[in-house]
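Lay summary. Proteins are chains of building blocks that fold into shapes, and those shapes determine what they do. In this project we predict the shape from the chain. Here is one chain we studied, written as its sequence of building blocks.
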Amino acid sequence: MTAEERVLRVMKRVLTDVAKATAPRPGRHRHPLSENTIRKIRQCLCLITAREQELAGEHKRDTSARPHFIDEPASETVVSLDIDRTVKQPGRPNLTRLREQLSANAVCHEESGCWNWTGQISNTGHGRIMIIEEYGGKRIVSAECASYETFLGPIPDGVMVRQICRNRLCINPQHLELFNHVS
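And here is the predicted shape, written in a compact code that computers can read:
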């Protein structure tokens, strides 16, 4: 990644963080930023994205790489799941919101195939994310667990998720596996 690409990525992250941080809270109907400022933020994000696409083209990088979700039509590989992921279950995450969060915070690394987490990082160096469950509960989990639950299914009690690629920030479900942790 070039210096310009790194700068663009940071600028994009800062602008989206500003937009998220200033979003109206429940009960507030007016955004604290003016309509003009919001329009300019959107324009900046569009310009940044366009330049990122240009740079990727110049360096002959595939720009179509992104996470694929379980409810998208199959394109190349079909993974059969033995559970119905559309049924709402108490204690299960809201998959629509979780897919959006994972997509917004994942960058595909072409050489390794890792989907590197760009969101919050824990003290142990793993990505972390707040999950909002179907019935309103909230919990913070590792990004790899959230990815596993979104793409592959529930994680049984007492079982942990780890990256077989040894990249603590990777959330690619093809790089994740379940294992029993013995203390």
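What the prediction tells us: Helices lie at 3-21, 35-58, 95-104, 143-151.
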